[in-house]
Amino acid sequence: MKKDAIDTHQSFRKVGQKHSGLRLVKKFFRDHDLVSAKNTLSQITSSAVDRHTRIRPEPSAVLDFYLSVKSFIRGCYLLQFRHKKWLLSEPQEAVSRLMLGSLSEQEYAYPFRVFKNAFREYDITDFDRFIAEASYFSLGVYDGQPGGNVVAPFIHLNKMLDASWVVLERVEGFEGRRVSGL
Q1: Which end of the chain is more exposed for a tag (fewer CB within 10 A), N or C?
Q2: To 5 degrees, how large is the angle CA 129–CA 169–CA 86?
């Protein structure tokens, strides 16, 4: 009798299902709040750069965060194409520096600019490589360090976290209405 090979590389999403960038970002923020996500990202990055330390959380938490950030990056990539189709509510007139986070006033007023700038400078694979190397090197004490530039992708990811939070607030506040005719 011939044994059938078991497919170990199963896809966990439905075939033909379209992914919305906003849906992926909402899912990310349902699992992680903004402050803890930025804190975990900075812990992972600093542990990866420092050779003699290991990150405190469980490795499963780091793996979960790694997978969440990968889907978040894809959501941000899809969000950059929605800047003409979505009508965001207007930002408040007087915005405190605390509300801006890592964004400038222009980026706060137009958050899609953050995604365009990030993906103009780096590709999705570059961000994937950064978060994979940072997660890997933060889990143990190794002789090597992550290759390439670590600071710029980290800054772009922090800005994308803030910008996507602003998009969620302003789209949700405006019930996510689309511009008529598009």
Answers
A1: N
A2: 80
Report helix, strand or coil for 178: strand
Instruction: Give pLDDT tens digits for 46-55.
Output: 888 776 666 7
**Which residue is listed with tokens 């890997």?**
136
User: Is 86 within the bounds of a domain?
Assistant: yes
Structurally, the chain folds into a number of domains equal to 1
Place of tokens 């990310």: 28
Residue type, 15: V
Other C-beta atoms within 10 Å of 121: how many?
11
pLDDT of amino acid 83:
62
Specify if 9 maps to a domain.
no
Kindly provide the b/e burial profile for residues 12-26, where b requires at least 16 CB atoms within 10 angstroms of the residue's own CB: eeeeeeeeebbebbb
pTM of the model: 0.77
pLDDT digits (tens, 9 = 90+) for 106-137: 888 888 889 999 999 999 999 999 999 888 88
- The two tokens of residue 151 are 């600071």
The verdict on residue 169 lying in a domain is yes
Determine, yes or no, domain membership for 178: no
Q: Estimate to the nearest angstrom the gap between the alpha carbon of 152 and the chain centroid.
A: 14
Max CA distance (Å), the chain:
75
pLDDT at 1: 52
Q: Percent of the chain scored above 70 by pLDDT?
A: 66
| Cα–Cα distance for residue pair 68/164, rounded to 1 Å | 14
